[in-house]
Every structure is written in C-alpha cells, then in structure tokens.
C-alpha cells in the first residue's frame, strides 16, 4: 500500500503514485513540491538539522507540538539573508506567532562552529503518519531571490 498526502496535512492510503512520496529501500521518502518561488534553477544545497541536539531525530506520532529545525550557517551561507516567510518543511510553512507576521525563528550558533544558524519551529500538529524513517526536505529563499534546499532524516515513533 502506498501512502500519499491528501489535502495539505494528512497522509491517506491510495492507489495513486505521488511526486511527494515514494517508497525507497523500505522507507517512505517525503519531498516537497517545487514552488514557483524557486524558479528554473536548481536550489543551492544547505545543511539542516532537525531536532538540533538529538542525533536520533525522534518525533512522536500524534504529538501536538512543533519540531525545531536549524538551517546551519557556514562560510557560504549567512542565515541573516534567509527570508523566514519562504521556509517550507515538506511544503509546510513555519509556524507563525499568534496573528502577527512574526515567525518562530531565532539566530543562534547551535553547532559551535562560530557561524550563526537559523532555528525555526515547524508545526507537526495535524499530520497523520505511520512509524518509520523519513527523509525531510527543507526549502527556503533568500531576500535576494536565491533558492536553498537541505535535507535530514527523522524517525517517527509511537507515543
């Protein structure tokens, strides 16, 4: 049985194939749809860390919370130039604070490499997924129009 995304935030079994979800080596690989924001050119690779400080990247199925995701700054990437409103984790916008336009992002050097990183909280509520390991794709854009792409793995476990 193949699971594909139905609607914007729910996985449902279908017989259809989907460009968003593929079974790879016994695991479902989830990728975000391309956006017009990212244009014809391929995105610039970047390093991300889901659940910074947690090497296993465990996420509890059905947990009503957010997942912290870090975009790791480097000599090639100054995170100050990233527009938080363009950040998508598997197609989901980053969580916004209340009714305002402020994102839940902050700058910090989480990996002690002397470069500032951008840590954002991403919604996990509303997703229905099965246990397993997934490749998660994060896409973002800079204020000067450059597109960025990074990936990390998570493991969904029962509550």
What is the gist of this entry?
With 159 residues, this protein is mainly β. Helices cover 0% and strands 48% of the residues.
Largest sheet: 6 strands, mixed
Number of domains: 1
CATH-wise, what's the superfamily? Immunoglobulins
CATH architecture level-2 label = Sandwich
Describe the structure.
The chain is mainly β. The protein has a single domain, classed as Immunoglobulins (Immunoglobulin-like, Sandwich). The chain has no helices and 14 strands. The chain has strands at residues 2-6, 10-14, 21-24, 27-30, 44-45, 47-50, 58-60, 66-72, 82-89, 92-93, 105-108, 117-123, 132-142, 147-157. Strands 5, 7, 9, 10, 13 and 14 form a six-stranded mixed sheet that branches. It has a four-stranded antiparallel sheet with strand order 6-8-12-11, with no helix packed on it. A two-stranded antiparallel ribbon has the order 1-2. A hairpin with a 4-residue loop joins β13 (132-142) and β14. It starts with a strand and ends with a strand. The model is unreliable at 1-20 and 30-39 (pLDDT under 50).
């Amino acid at each position: 049985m193949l699971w594909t995304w139905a609607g914007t935030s729910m996985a449902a079994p279908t017989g259809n194939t989907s460009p968003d979800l593929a079974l790879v080596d016994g695991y479902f690989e989830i990728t975000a749809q391309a956006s017009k924001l990212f244009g014809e050119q391929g995105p610039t690779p970047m390093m991300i860390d889901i659940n910074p400080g947690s090497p296993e990247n465990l996420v509890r199925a059905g947990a009503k919370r957010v997942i912290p995701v870090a975009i790791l700054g480097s000599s090639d990437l100054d995170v100050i130039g990233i527009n938080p409103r363009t950040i998508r984790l598997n197609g989901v916008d980053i969580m916004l604070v209340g009714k305002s336009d402020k994102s839940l992002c902050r700058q910090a050097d989480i990996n002690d490499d002397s470069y500032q990183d951008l840590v954002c909280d991403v919604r996990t509520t509303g997703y229905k997924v099965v246990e397993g390991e997934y490749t998660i794709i994060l896409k973002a854009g800079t204020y000067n129009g450059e597109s960025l792409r990074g990936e990390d793995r998570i493991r969904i476990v029962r509550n």
